[in-house]
Amino acid sequence: MVKSILLVGVGGQGTILASKLLTTGLMEAGYDVKMSEIHGMSQRGGSVSSQVRYGDEIQSPVVEIGGADILVSFEKMEALRWFKYLKPNGKVIVNDYEIDSMPILSGKEEYSQGIIDEISSRASTIVIDAQKYALQLGNSKVMNVILLGSIIKAMELEAINWEKIVRDNVKPQFVEVNLKAIEVGMNLL
């Protein structure tokens, strides 16, 4: 049994932190886990991806084209950009959130409309407005952990002690809001 999760977003969205929490939880649950990160121009709002593969024995951290069981997109344009990595029967969790790229900000391009409709027509898709729920929790920076909660539920990983993982890996002043964010994400599925 090998499962592959592809987390994609834009620099600054917390994609790497979410994947590190996920990887730590999977390792503590006894899985063989491999993780690969691609930062790109993340500090300038560029694309970021993390590939997490887990199971009994993992040979490679790389998710091949058509190999991801689940694609989790922290920004909706990234879901379209990375869609080819999804298995034919894979699932997409997409954050209904836009971040304008430099060509859009400069007026040379427009943000593509209908992205979620296109993705939904091609794969089983769950759309989450993580910003709305993060703002309800009082911290817009926990969108990533809300999406982590949705991964936990979608991949049936609820038995892992996520409270311990968060307490061990998040600054103390942010532990409680992150625990709530995981719960919110799990309840959205």
Keywords:
6 strands; 189 residues; alpha/beta; globular; single chain
SSE string, helices as H and strands as E: EHEEEHEHHEHHHH
Which band does the percent of strand residues land in?
Answer: 15-25%
Assign an overall shape. Answer: globular
Major sheet: order of its strands?
Answer: 2-3-1-4-5-6
Provide mean pLDDT, rounded.
92
Q: Cα distance, first to last residue?
A: 23 Å
Helix amount, in percent? 25-40%
Class by SSE composition: alpha/beta
What do these coordinates show?
Helices cover 38% and strands 24% of the residues. With 189 residues, the protein is α/β, with parallel strands linked by helices. It has a six-stranded mixed sheet, sandwiched between helices. Helix 5 packs across helix 6. The mean pLDDT is 92.
